[in-house]
Amino acid sequence: MTDPFSKCRLPEEFEAPARAGCYPFYLPVEERPGGGEVVVGGRRVLMAGSNDYLALSGDPRVTEAAAEALRRLGAGNSGSRALNGTLELHRTLEAELAAFLGHEAAMVVSTGYQANLTLSALFGPRDVLFADRHIHASLIDAARLGQAPMRRYRHNDMGQLARLLEEADPEAGAMVLTEGMFSVGGDLSDLPGIVKLAARHGARVVLDSAHDAGLLGPGGRGAAEHHGLQPAVDVQTVTFSKCFGTLGGAVAGPRHVVEYLRHSARPALFSASLPPSCTAAALAALGIIRAEPERRRAVMSAAERLRSGLVALGFAIPPGGTPTVSLRMGNALACCRFWAGLLEEGVLANVMLPPSVPGESALIRLSVTAAHTGGQVDRILGAVASVADRLGAAEGR
After folding, report:
1. pLDDT in tens, 328-384
2. Distance CA 25, CA 213 (A)
3. From start to end of 95-233, where are the E strands?
């Protein structure tokens, strides 16, 4: 018989950087002193790859809320939400999240990935899913776990989505899956176009707000609020690992839908519940998001400085105005060498290779947070310019 472990080898796009001494993954961070910096290999470097957009993961109010819950309720709940793992903290956070997002109810789960996996219980055999080609892996896995076929449309291509909806069985239950802010490029979904088409065809809108909840919109409620379309979103998922600065996630929507998921979604039913410390941290972060819009203004100011600076350097940056941007780097090895050059310059960025990105793309992903000063953003730009000049022009420049 064939050894089932014979397939367990790294793809060439991962092995080549390792051989070249520029492997960019699983790099251990030793300390997080704050102020937009981390310690790697004994050096303080600028963190230019974090999703902690509002810089709340180290906020004393958030960490103290987590510490107090840890002391009072312990390190874990030793059970699922359905049995013995529900805390009053969970219920409080759910009520606050539902009110914040403008939905009837919310269900807190242990990760943002799990929040999207719980959606699989909604995807029945008589349904059909229409999904943007750039949706996150967790939504793709939710579709695979569910029973509904999925039809993909080109990124933000409303013409193709319209054709797919028109061709679908009118008796099927239709759902459109998209992200509010796409995690790699930082661009926004064409939510106005999606909502218009969904209304025309009687489809539900399911929005993954992992990267935009807390960041976009006048009240920080996300991309839907940014577009003035919060009431048009039927179900919304969020994660606490971005703007909320901790771990966990939630699904929000109509009460009967959330109650159905509580009793039918296997990823949530059979998982241990979110620990007290993370729950309390998320609740504290939500209060800060509501009370301190200046954090959103600070990160958006840093984002504009980063984006305009990259354009001035000759990079082709798509419009978006968000704190995340990606630079096309050609092949995987060239991308990893660029990453290593940035690290030498004191900037820690992200490398995005398939399957994290579609096709054969290789990207450097940069992001800024509310903790970054204008001078630090300029240092990031200086590092990018220096490495680009030394290693040659990237595809997107």
Report:
1. 998 899 999 999 999 999 999 999 987 777 666 799 999 999 999 999 999 999 999
2. 27
3. 105-109, 127-132, 150-153, 173-179, 204-208
Which residues lie across from 365 on neighbouring strands? 326, 350
Structure tokens at 373: 């000063």
Counting beta carbons within 10 angstroms of the beta carbon of residue 5, is it exposed (0 to 12), middle (13 to 18) or buried (19 or more)? exposed
Query: Among all chains, which residue has been given the structure tokens 């920080």?
Result: 220
Find all residues with CB under 8 Å of 5, minimum gap 6, and list them.
none
Using CA atoms, how far apart are residues 277 and 281, in angstroms rounded to an integer? 6
**H or E segment at 253?**
strand 249-253
C-alpha distance from residue 296 to each of 54, 142, 145, 304 (Å)? 7, 31, 36, 12
Largest CA distance in the chain: 63
Task: Determine the Cα–Cα distance for residues 106 and 283; give it in Å rounded to an integer.
Answer: 13
C-alpha dihedral sign at 386, 23, 7, 352: negative
Q: Which residues contact 269 (CB under 8 A, 6 or more apart)?
A: 80, 81, 82, 262, 263
Using the predicted structure, report yes or no on whether residue 393 has a pLDDT greater than 80.
no
Taking only the tens place, the pLDDT of each residue in 135-172 is 999 999 999 999 999 999 999 999 999 999 999 999 99
Q: Which residue reads 């403008």 in tokens?
A: 102
What confidence category does residue 318 fall into, taking pLDDT thresholds of 50, 70 and 90?
A: confident
Catalytically active residues are 183, 211, 242
pTM (2 d.p.)? 0.95
